[in-house]
Design a protein that fits this description.
alpha/beta, 3 domains, 12% strand
């Protein structure tokens, strides 16, 4: 997989026409500018062709007749030169205009594509991110968009300009001399044959070069990340040896690639010179025989020099354009990925409960939540959010061939603490993923306050939940804003209160800028335990009815864990809590402990009940069997 710092190998798009059509749709809002660009390219190419064609009347009508005259009339000669000057100026201005406009269009188009790509990614299901690496996804925003930018801003205008120039020069040469044009066509066939042979070799080695660059960059990134491990085990020499081998392969591929790429221009240049010489000799013979005038030969020879250049440009741009279209195709493939389906219609609303127990929806925050349930007959019912979660015969697998959970049934009453223990892969985290609707269950039902969670809108469902993951992610922002991420409307006082609840306030206040300390690199300037405390504070400020703790205290030392137990108890008070833990000491006070094995609940009960059963939990707790 290409990473964000590597370039993908040159690839051909599977459907170049369709991809190009989708790119053009993004560019349609620039119709007027595109029309001006096309006119500018035509003017630029035409000016170059017209200026060269004017050599014929300039030589035939003025230079040749002036030979031997002492006082020739230069007024017509000066007028023609002035006309040529104006033509070249128009061509130069047209070139500047269309290049400048193309920059605006290319950057604007890429801006829209990046916005659509980023927006679409936010709506993709978790399964997509589980099956695609971060480097692969980042390459769409870096490598693919860069290749597309080069194609739009430079490649496309040059291709169109070169094509118009080639056609225009060919027509002008036919007008000047059909005989000499046949000679040019013959030489053109030879040049195209050389380009195809040398170009295929160059492309082969450039693909290999890009692959080797990816390997070298990936190896460097991995070794930099693992410097501590390398030094601990004294593998510096082995790492250098492996790097030398990879670097040698890159050097060999790059040498071959650039060798073929660099010899193409000299070969084409020499063929062009030979063509020029051969045409000059043939033209001179025709002039001597009186079948052609000197102005025609001079103009034709200039066209001969200009004819091979745009063809060479087209051949050089061809691979880069194919590469850009392949990158655009990869971007559009992501945009074509189906977004996370959500057919839920039950929403979460602020509510008030009167003395009679009636629930009323309100606009302000009251700390009381209710499910707003619209029925098919047009009526609305409100159910208070209590945190009653029940699994009924749930079977689930991430792929059709293998199930992770088999016929799971469990319940968590409001305010209960439910713990899941078991070996890695037993299905503990999968249960919490299903509660969040990161994945939908194909068999069985999950009910939340008596409502099938498939009927609840995902955003509203997740708003009623708070989750503390084992792998803490912190944003490049202040500590205050990182905690506030759990509830964007939280005041500073609420954030500080949540930090105190999670026992994070003490260490935060001892930082140089306190709550205004900016975290970078996913909180690399904090210890793992401190990062985990901030994640717990983030969940606390959300103040949800249901709390999910997935190894929430795994990175906290025993002393710190004991310090936050009271705070965690306050956080869990009145809430339904699901806990996944390897440290069985953290789940002793759970209302119910579920022991999972191979996707099934093999034991359930509280700590004392399971110890008395002397089963799997007893073995785990007494150390007879270790969790892995």
């Amino acid at each position: 997989m290409p990473g964000p710092m590597t370039k993908p190998a040159i690839q051909k798009p599977k459907n170049a026409g369709k991809t190009l059509g989708r790119i053009l749709k993004y560019m349609l809002c620039y119709r007027i500018q595109l029309f001006i660009i096309l006119i500018g390219i035509i003017f630029s190419a035409s000016a170059s062709i017209a200026g060269t064609y004017f050599l014929k009347p300039l030589i035939n009508n003025y230079i040749v007749p002036f030979i031997g005259r002492k006082n020739p009339d230069l007024s017509g000669f000066i007028t023609l030169l002035s006309v040529m000057t104006v033509i070249y100026l128009v061509g130069a201005l047209s070139t500047y205009l269309y290049n400048r406009l193309m920059v605006n269009i290319s950057t604007g188009t890429l801006k829209k594509i990046r916005i659509d790509l980023f927006t679409h990614m936010q709506g993709l299901p978790i399964k997509y991110f589980d099956t695609h690496t971060h480097g692969f996804l980042m390459s769409h925003f870096t490598n693919d968009t860069d290749a597309l930018r080069e194609m739009l801003s430079q490649g496309v205008p040059q291709i169109i300009s070169s094509a118009i120039t080639v056609v225009g020069i060919f027509i002008a040469m036919l007008i000047l001399s059909p005989v000499l044009t046949l000679l040019i066509i013959g030489m053109l066939v030879v040049m195209m044959f050389v380009i195809s042979k040398v170009g295929s070799k160059s492309s082969k080695y450039f693909r290999k070069q890009q692959q080797e660059i990816g390997r070298v960059n990936g190896y460097i990134e991995e070794m930099i990340t693992g410097q501590k491990v390398i030094k601990v085990f004294c593998h510096e020499d082995d790492v250098i040896k492996d790097f030398d081998s990879l670097n040698e392969s890159l050097c060999s591929a790059a040498t071959n690639a650039n060798t073929y790429a660099n010899i193409l221009m000299p070969i084409m240049g020499n063929l062009s010179y030979f063509n020029y010489t051969f045409t000059a000799v043939a033209g001179a013979i025709l002039v001597i025989n009186g079948r052609m005038d000197l102005g025609t030969v001079a103009s034709f020879l200039q066209f001969t020099r200009s004819f091979s250049q745009p063809i060479t440009q087209i051949s050089q741009l061809f691979n880069s354009i194919l590469n850009a279209l392949a990158g655009a195709e990869r971007i559009f493939n992501v945009l074509d990925e189906p977004m996370e389906a959500d057919r839920g219609y039950v929403t979460l609303v602020n509510a008030e409960i009167d003395n009679m127990g009636n629930i009323k929806e309100v606009d302000k925050s009251t700390g009381v939540w209710a499910w707003k349930y619209p029925h098919s007959d047009g009526t609305l019912t409100y159910t208070q959010v209590n945190g009653d979660v029940r699994f009924q015969d749930v079977t689930f697998g991430y792929s059709e061939n293998k199930t992770v959970l088999n016929d799971i049934s469990l319940f968590a009453k409001p305010g209960q603490k439910i713990a899941f223990v078991g070996s890695t892969g037993a299905g503990k985290t999968t249960i919490t993923n299903l509660i969040n609707r990161f994945y939908d269950v194909p068999d069985g039902k999950i009910r939340y306050d008596g409502i099938n969670i498939n009927k609840i809108k995902k955003a509203d469902l997740r708003q009623s939940l708070a989750m503390v993951l084992q792998d803490t992610h912190l944003f490049t922002e202040t500590i205050m804003e990182n905690i506030r991420y759990g509830k964007l409307t939280a005041t500073d006082e609420e954030v500080i209160k949540a930090a105190k609840l999670a026992n994070a306030d003490y260490f935060v206040r001892h930082l140089p800028q306190g709550y205004n300390t900016v975290l970078t690199s996913d909180g690399a300037n904090l210890s793992q335990g401190q990062r985990q405390l901030l994640a717990i504070a983030r969940a606390a400020v959300a103040n949800p009815p249901v709390l999910i703790l997935d190894e929430a205290t795994s990175s906290i030392d025993t002393r710190t864990e004991s310090l936050i137990e009271k705070g965690m108890d306050k956080l869990m008070e009145g809430r339904t809590v699901f806990v996944i833990a390897h440290r069985l000491s953290t789940v002793r006070n759970a209302d119910a402990i579920m022991v999972l094995e191979n996707g099934e609940i093999i034991e359930r009960g509280n700590h004392n009940e399971l110890i008395s059963q002397r089963g799997k939990y007893y073995q785990l707790y007494t150390g007879m069997f270790e969790l892995s």
